[in-house]
């Protein structure tokens, strides 16, 4: 009698345990697999490019969730903390610097695009129209100022020392025929400063955000320039997640001919696919 009672208690406990596992989604193939890919991105052009692949990911059973950030720190924080699966807003030199300064281990897993820096019309509508002492606005951060100076050099406005490349500063100008004044400004403010300068050299994301188009530009960085090869924007994940199913699905969906066509048609040269 005692054995029967003991058997009944054990059976009841097994049934209860099975019920709890079922309710909690335990016990193997429960349909609880996470099929959402969450990506942190800058609004333009990154989030726009990501949103263009939502349907193709959905066709493969994935839900894409794009979380937009307006700064260049929080996307990496969110990725490191696991709040998102990946981010897409930065180039590798910035990523390397961020990792070195913050002790993080974020890695690039796929090239997507390059944002061509452009010289945009302000008070003047061409390089030829520049006059003695005209002001040209350039970004005040080291990386983008060097790119701006190289763009001006490529178009004959100034001459830089040989070999300075993407580390050029104003002190590397060796010839300035029209004595233009290089005005260093916060990159995001240059579009609004165009009425006060002859020309402004602007990053594509800020130009696009301000509604500037190729009709407003007098020149862009060459697609085969050193900057174009160096500052490709990439998809980034935590080290160890490079070969995860989510990462592979995301990179595969981005690096397609359809995305190339989307970038070329939407941004008309200001953004170039680089995969």
Characterize the largest beta sheet: strand count, sense, and whether it forms a barrel: 6 strands, mixed
How many whole angstroms does the radius of gyration measure? 26 Å
Q: What is the CATH T-level topology of the largest domain?
A: D-Maltodextrin-Binding Protein, domain 2
- The order of strands across the largest sheet is 2-1-3-12-4-13
Order of helices and strands: HEHHEHEHEEEHEEEHEHEHEHHE
Task: Name the average pLDDT.
Answer: 89
**How many E-type strands?**
13
Low-confidence stretches: 1-32
Please give the CATH class of the largest domain: Alpha Beta
Give the distance, in angstroms, between the N- and C-terminal Cα atoms.
75 Å
Q: How many structurally independent domains?
A: 2
Shape: elongated
Q: Per CATH, which architecture of the largest domain?
A: 3-Layer(aba) Sandwich
Structural class of the helix and strand makeup? alpha/beta
Count of alpha/pi helices: 11
| Oligomerization | single chain
Overview of the structural elements:
The protein is an alpha/beta fold. The chain has helices at 2-23, 43-51, 54-59, 74-81, 92-102, 142-154, 190-193, 204-209, 226-230, 245-254, 257-267; strands at 36-41, 63-68, 86-91, 106-115, 118-121, 135-139, 159-160, 173-175, 181-185, 199-202, 217-220, 232-238, 271-273. It folds into two domains: 36-115 and 231-273, D-Maltodextrin-Binding Protein, domain 2, CATH 3.40.190.10; 118-220, D-Maltodextrin-Binding Protein, domain 2, CATH 3.40.190. 38% of the residues lie in helices and 24% in strands. The protein has eleven helices and 13 strands.
């Amino acid at each position: 009698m005692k054995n029967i009672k003991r058997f009944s208690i054990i059976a009841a406990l097994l049934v209860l345990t099975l019920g709890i596992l079922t309710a909690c989604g335990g016990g193997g193939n429960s349909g609880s697999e996470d099929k959402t890919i969450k990506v942190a991105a800058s609004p333009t052009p990154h989030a726009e490019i990501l949103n263009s692949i939502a349907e193709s990911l959905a066709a493969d059973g994935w839900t894409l969730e794009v979380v937009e950030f307006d700064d260049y720190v929080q996307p990496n924080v969110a990725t490191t903390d696991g709040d998102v699966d990946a981010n897409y807003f930065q180039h590798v030199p910035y990523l390397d610097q961020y990792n070195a300064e913050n002790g993080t281990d974020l890695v690039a897993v796929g090239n997507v695009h390059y944002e061509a820096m452009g010289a945009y019309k302000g008070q003047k509508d061409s390089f030829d129209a520049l006059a003695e002492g005209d002001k040209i606005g350039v970004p005040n951060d080291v990386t983008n100022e060097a790119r701006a100076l190289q763009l001006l050099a490529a178009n004959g406005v100034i001459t830089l020392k040989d070999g300075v490349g993407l580390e050029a500063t104003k002190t590397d100008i060796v010839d300035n025929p029209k004595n233009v004044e290089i005005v260093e400004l916060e990159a995001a403010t240059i579009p609004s400063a165009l009425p006060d300068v002859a020309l402004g050299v602007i990053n594509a994301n800020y130009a696009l955000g301000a509604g500037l188009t190729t009709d407003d530009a007098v020149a862009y960085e060459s697609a085969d320039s050193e900057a174009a090869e160096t500052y490709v924007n990439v998809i980034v994940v935590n080290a160890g997640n490079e070969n995860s199913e989510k990462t592979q699905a995301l990179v595969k969906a981005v690096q397609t001919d359809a995305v190339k066509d989307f970038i070329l048609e939407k941004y008309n040269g200001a953004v170039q696919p680089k995969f």
